[in-house]
Design brief:
By secondary structure, this protein is α/β, with parallel strands linked by helices. 59% of the residues lie in helices and 12% in strands. The protein is built from eight helices and nine strands. Helix 1 crosses helix 6, helix 3 packs parallel to helix 4 and helix 7 packs across helix 8. The structure holds NADP nicotinamide-adenine-dinucleotide phosphate.
Length: 321
């Protein structure tokens, strides 16, 4: 159990981060600054948890987070940079901002956090934890941008271990597919998760234990470690596995194109419906205008009749006089 620590945890509102939050909040004397962009569900989580909304994908966000933590705790004993997100897609577009958004959150922010944390520690002891990904070690079809963002983070942690001061422990987590909001965020259209899938509570338990024991890396799925060895020794096993994942992407692309076709058909039907409504309205307008004109004609006739009568009466009166 991790006790008596001041902790910053990003991505604390959901999935792996939320399960880690539950475990850390139980530690005696722990005080936690729990961060996500939306923190409504963790606002009243526990007395030792301060929920704070922050977008860690910007320099201003990370700087503000360090200021907030220093204000609350003075020293940060453990900084767990867990927040991240994926896309599941065929990479076939030229959209700089989309690529940039992923790298800012998954790669640049945790790298920048390292530099901030080293400066914050100023020689004191501290622990930096990262949620990398199994996909940061083995690229997968459908996750080109996500894989590269996590490969980059993995490369950074490998390199920085050779430079980092002794007062800093770095513990990295390499989960396989974990049943969190991750897959809902990745694409609006449902797709098949990579095999195997773990529970976030299992992943969180292993990571908290790894941090406590000073592990450099935590691979919560034994099968992934085994399969890496197997795939290294027998490359055809890797080919078979990746072909299965490629087939999933092909099925997803078909589903996506059906979804887009449905959207187009719905949009076309909506336009047709709009046209029909328009012509009905115009027809109704014509009817109403016709009725009004008829009424106006009738009223005009009646008024003219009354006016003629009035003229007759006046004439009669004049002649009568
Ligand atoms: N689930 C998996 O299969 C899997 C596998 C390997 C690695 N991972 C990694 O595990 C980590 C946690 O993901 P998860 O699976 O637990 O997904 P999740 O359930 O979607 O949780 C993601 C968390 O990160 C927060 N977040 C996202 N962008 C943020 C930003 N710009 N600023 C602050 N907070 C942000 C989210 O809250 P808001 O949206 O409110 O900000 C949420 O609390 C990620 O780094 C992910 O890449 C996941």
């Amino acid at each position: 159990m991790i006790d008596n620590k001041t902790i910053v945890l990003t991505g604390a509102s959901s999935g792996i981060g939320f399960e880690v939050l539950k475990l850390l909040a139980q530690g005696k004397g722990n005080r936690i600054l729990a961060v996500a962009r939306h923190v409504d569900n963790i606002k009243y989580f526990a007395d030792n948890v301060t929920a704070w909304p922050c977008d860690i994908s910007t320099q201003a966000g990370v700087d503000a987070l360090f200021r907030k933590a220093e204000e609350l705790f003075g020293k940060i004993d453990l900084f767990y940079a867990n927040a991240g997100f994926p896309y599941y897609e065929e990479f076939n577009y030229t959209d700089w901002d989309r690529i940039d958004a992923m790298f800012r959150t998954n790669t640049i922010s945790p790298i920048y956090t390292y530099a901030k944390y080293i400066a914050h520690l100023n020689g004191r002891e501290g622990i930096l934890a990262y949620t990398v990904s199994a996909i940061g070690e083995m690229a997968m079809p459908g996750y080109a941008i996500y894989s590269s963002s996590k490969f980059a983070l993995n490369g950074f942690q490998q390199a920085i271990r050779m430079e980092k001061p002794d007062n800093l422990q770095i513990t990295c987590l390499y989960p396989v597919a974990t049943d969190t909001n991750f897959f809902k965020v990745a694409n609006a259209v449902e797709f098949e998760k990579p095999f195997p899938v773990q529970k976030p509570s299992t992943v969180a338990k292993k990571m908290v234990k790894g941090i406590e024991e000073g592990a450099e890396r935590v691979s919560p799925c034994g099968l992934f470690g085994l399969s890496k060895v197997l795939m290294g020794a027998l490359p055809p096993v890797k080919t078979v596995y990746l072909n299965m994942e490629k087939a999933k992407l092909e099925r997803f692309k078909q589903k996506l194109s059906q979804y887009h076709n449905r959207l187009h058909a719905d949009a076309a039907a909506a336009v047709e419906h709009g046209r029909e409504l328009g012509s009905q309205i115009r027809e109704k307008n014509r009817e109403v205008v016709g009725e009004l004109e008829e009424k106006a004609e009738k009223v005009r006739g009646e008024l003219e009749e009354k006016a003629a009568k009035a003229r007759e009466e006046i004439k009669d009166r004049i002649h009568g006089v």
